[in-house]
Structure formats: C-alpha cells, structure tokens
Specification:
- By secondary structure, the chain is an alpha+beta fold.
- The chain folds into 3 domains: 189 residues, Jelly Rolls, CATH 2.60.120.10; 48 residues; 57 residues, Arc Repressor Mutant, subunit A (Orthogonal Bundle), CATH 1.10.10.60.
- The chain is built from 11 helices and 11 strands.
- Strands 1, 2, 3, 4, 5, 6, 7, 8, 9, 10 and 11 form an 11-stranded antiparallel β-sheet that branches.
- Helix 3 runs antiparallel to helix 4, helix 8 packs antiparallel against helix 9 and helix 8 packs parallel to helix 11.
- The radius of gyration is 21 Å and the shape is globular.
- It comes from Stappia indica.
Length: 304
Amino acid sequence: MRPLRSSRAAVLHGDHRMTRLRTGLNVHTSDTVTLQDIATTIEQPPGLTIMIFLDGGVDATIGGVPLNVGRHEDEPVRGVMMSRTRPDRFVRHARKGDRLRKVIVTMSPQWLAESGIDDIAGCETVRAFCNTHLARFDWVASPAMIAIAEQMLHPPHDGSYPESLYLESRALDLVAEAFAALASEGREALRTELSPVEQRRLQAIKDMLADPEADGLSLEQVARQCGVSVSKMQRLFRLAHGGTVSEYVRSTRLVRARQLLEREGITVAEAAHGAGYSSPANFATAFKRMFGISPREARRSARA
C-alpha cells in the first residue's frame, strides 16, 4: 500500500492506477482510503464508461446530474454504464476516511466504432445507448463479473505475461457482460422522460412521502401502498430527479430545513431534528455539502 501525493500532501493511501491499454481503451482501478477531504473537477470526453464499485461510493455529478454510484454493506455489487456523446463536466467530492474499491473501464467513440458492436446480439440497443448523452444503465453484477473486477484490482505478478495484456483481457470481459446485460434488458435505460401515467404515479408517491405519517415507513411499505415495486419506484425517481428515493427525501428535507432557518430562525438542533438527523454535526455536514454554507450561516440571514 502506498500514498498518492498531490503537490501539498498525500490524498489517498492504497493502490490507485490509471492504465491506457490501447488507444481509446483505459482502465482505472482503486483500492484506497482517502486521507483528506478533496474536490475534483474535470472535463470528461465523449465515450462510454463502465463502473464496478466493490466497496464504497462517490459523491459526484456529471453535467449537473448526480451519479449516485457505489455499494454499501449488505448491498449487491452493481454495474453502472454511462454514455457521453459530448464533453461534460465531472465534479467529485471525497471525504477523509472514505474507503473505495472500484474498477472503471472507459472507451472512446473511435474504439467503440472499431470494436465490432454491429456483430453482437442486441446491437441496435447498444448503439442507441452509445448515441444518447448521459444514458445510464444499472444491473446486478454476476459472480463472474465480480471475480473479474477483483482480479483487475490485484492482477497477478508472476511474470507469466504482461500485466497490460492481462488487464485488457479482463476489461474486454467486463465490456462483453455489460453489453449483454443492456441488450437483454431492452431500452429502459434510454428513456429520459416519464409517461403521463408514470408522472401521476410519481406524484402520488411524492405526496405520500411528504405526509408526516409516512415517517418511519420502509421503501417496501411506501412502494406497496402506492402499488409499485421498489425497483420501479427507484427508476421513476432516477428518471425524474437523477437520484434515489432516499436522496430525494433527504434533499427535500434539507431544503425545508434551510427555509425554516432563514425565514423563522429556528435553532440548528431543531432544523436537524426536522430533517431527520439525530446528530446536528451530521446535519451540518450534509447541509454544507448541498448548499455551500453552514446551517448557522443560513440562520444568521433570518436575523439580518
């Protein structure tokens, strides 16, 4: 294990690699712990990205859309594939102590054009996905895919063949599984708008979530009372708001807390309790991450 250093101090501890396998085909692997709070902003070029998070997640946006990717304890490992048809801004915030184990494969449009997509099953779906800006597809990773990601994190060093060749073979296996999953699950990932029926269903769910009597209900209970599955409910919120149901609830509560702090001057502890936080410190961290100011600064505006 080794630290990755910036011009001032180490920011990561562990194994962090970015490898160019071929022109247009790159792999980024990370098995690290963040040593300090960091913020990263880059412009991502057009292309396709496949992400496998074995542990941990990232707080990031691309083109202003929350990525909401990662894995937490007891959750299945998921694959995430995103397409970019034009350059777009990527912003990431990492906190000290974050543990992250991930494998990311990126492909340029030229590499994709030369890779023989037209010869695979479901090629029309894959091609349409690649041609849709910020199209996103999530699926539960197979045991084989998880094993491949683990192998890419820690490739063998026995000298039997070049590491880059080993990584390339593993990366191609990941790409093949991602394309196969996308082709089998159809065009759901390409939709960017809700149908009228889905809009009404989404509003019914939001109305229930806004009811104080819904506090304490599980996602399964909310979905059951609204007549949808949890996965369908999550898809509705991702399409409409770019995030999960929990993230929508958290953000709306933080917005309400800010309104009460600024307009009515309630205490920070009261705002934290109303937003569902047992710890004012955790509330303050989430509040500042969302709005760029602390709850105390927001409250001062009520007295100004």
